[in-house]
């Protein structure tokens, strides 16, 4: 689900986020790029304004970096106990695999969020 461009700026206010459904709030909480504008479509002026907005709002990515590093670390640390439990009862192989997949996804999201932060921090000319 992608938010409409005008909604992005409105969602920076807590009162407008409070009107969203739980699923939409979860999307904003986990998707580091949900509150950024698309700088690849439109006229040159629209793209430049969107890029300027994204550069000004890159500070939001720091919170997402912390969030996803915590998710990645906790998922990674949960793999070993789940594997140990799977050695006793075969049912626990599913949670071990789920933690491993979650850790891989979280590491990937962390990498791309860090890359976006670095690229948005770079000088534009």
Spell out the key features of this protein.
125 residues; mainly alpha
Helix/strand layout:
Elements: H1 5-10, H2 14-17, H3 22-30, H4 44-56, H5 60-88, H6 93-121
Helix pairs in contact: 5-6
Description:
By secondary structure, the chain is mainly alpha-helical. 72% of the residues lie in helices and 0% in strands.
Brief sketch in words of this structure:
With 125 residues, this protein is mainly α. It is built from six helices and no strands. The protein starts with a helix and ends with a helix.
Specify the biggest β-sheet: none
Overall SS class: mainly alpha
Could you name the ranges where pLDDT drops below 50 across 5 or more consecutive residues? Answer: none
Radius of gyration: 18 Å
Proportion of β residues? Answer: under 5%
Overall pLDDT confidence: 90
Query: What is the 3D shape?
Result: elongated
Q: Which oligomerization state do the chains in this entry correspond to?
A: single chain
Distance between the termini: 32 Å
Order of helices and strands: HHHHHH
| Number of DSSP strand runs | 0
Helix residue percentage: over 70%
Number of helices: 6
């Amino acid at each position: 689900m992608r938010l409409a461009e005008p909604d992005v700026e409105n969602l920076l206010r807590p009162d407008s986020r409070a009107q969203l459904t739980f699923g939409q709030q979860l999307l904003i909480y986990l998707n580091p790029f949900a509150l950024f504008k698309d700088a690849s479509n439109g006229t040159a002026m629209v793209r430049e304004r969107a890029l300027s907005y994204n550069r000004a709002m890159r500070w939001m990515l720091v919170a997402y970096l912390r969030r996803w590093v915590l998710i990645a670390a906790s998922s990674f640390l949960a793999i070993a106990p789940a594997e140990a439990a799977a050695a006793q009862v075969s049912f626990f192989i599913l949670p071990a695999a789920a933690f491993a997949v979650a850790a891989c996804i979280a590491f990937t999201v962390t990498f791309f969020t860090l890359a976006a932060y670095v690229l948005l921090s770079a000088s534009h000319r």
